Amino acid sequence: MRQNHHPQPDDKGSGERPSYQGAPANALPLTASEDRQWATMAHFGGILGFIPSMVIYLVFRDRGPFTAQESKEALNFTLPPTIIALVAWVLSFIPVIGWFFAILNALLWVAIAVSSVVAGIAVNRGRPYRYPLNLRRIP
After folding, report:
1. How far apart are CA 110 and CA 14, in angstroms?
2. What's the pLDDT at 104?
3. 3 state SS of 70
4. Contact, 82 vs 112, CB < 8 A?
5. Which band of pLDDT confidence, cut at 50, 70 and 90, is reported for residue 113?
6. Contact assessment for residue 126 and residue 36, using Cβ atoms and an 8 Å cutoff
7. Can you give the pTM of this predicted structure?
8. Of the candidates 42, 29, 39, which has an alpha carbon nearest to the alpha carbon of residue 67?
9. Of the chain's two ends, which shows fewer C-beta atoms within 10 Å, N or C?
C-alpha cells in the first residue's frame, strides 16, 4: 500500500473526473526587470514585422506600464511599413516593373530592422524610445 496516496474522485469508482485548476484570471504585475525585458522584445520583434509587438501589447499592456508604452510605440511604428512591404512583395511579381517593388520591399525591411534594433537597445537601457517617423494611430 502506498503511503502518500491522496484519493481522487476516480479512486472511489464514482466516475467523476478530477477537477483541474487553471491560471488565475488576473495575472501578476511584471517586475521592473520583466517590464524592461518585454518592452525591449517588443522593439526587437519589429525585425519580424508588427505581429510580435502586437502580441506583447495585447498580453502585457495591463501588467507593466513600460511594456504597455513601448509595445504600443513599436506597434504604431511597425504596422504601416509592414503592410506596405507586404503590398510591395505582392507587386514584385508583376513582370517588367516587379524589380522596383522588390527593391522597395527590401529597403523597407532593412529600415524597419535597423530602427527596431536601435529602439530595442535604448529601451533595454531603461530609456523610453520614440521613433522619429511614427503615425501613433493606436491610442
Report:
1. 63
2. 94
3. helix
4. yes
5. very high
6. yes
7. 0.76
8. 39
9. N
Task: Summarize pLDDT for 11-65 with one digit per residue, the tens.
Answer: 555 556 666 565 556 778 889 999 999 999 999 999 999 999 999 999 999 999 9
Other beta carbons within 10 angstroms of residue 10's beta carbon come to 11
Alpha helices (H) in 11-97, listed in sequence order: 32-44, 51-60, 65-91
- Residue 64 neighbours by CB under 8 Å, 6+ apart: 29, 30, 34, 35, 38, 39
- SS3 assignment, position 3: coil
Q: Report the first-to-last Cα separation within the chain, whole angstroms.
A: 62
Burial class (CB in 10 A: 0-12, 13-18, 19+), 98: middle
C-alpha to C-alpha distance for 43 and 41, rounded to whole angstroms? 5
Tell me the one-letter amino acid at 69. Answer: Q
Q: Report which residue type is found at 24.
A: P
- Collapsing DSSP to helix, strand or coil, 4 comes out as coil
The three cell numbers of residue 98 are 516587379
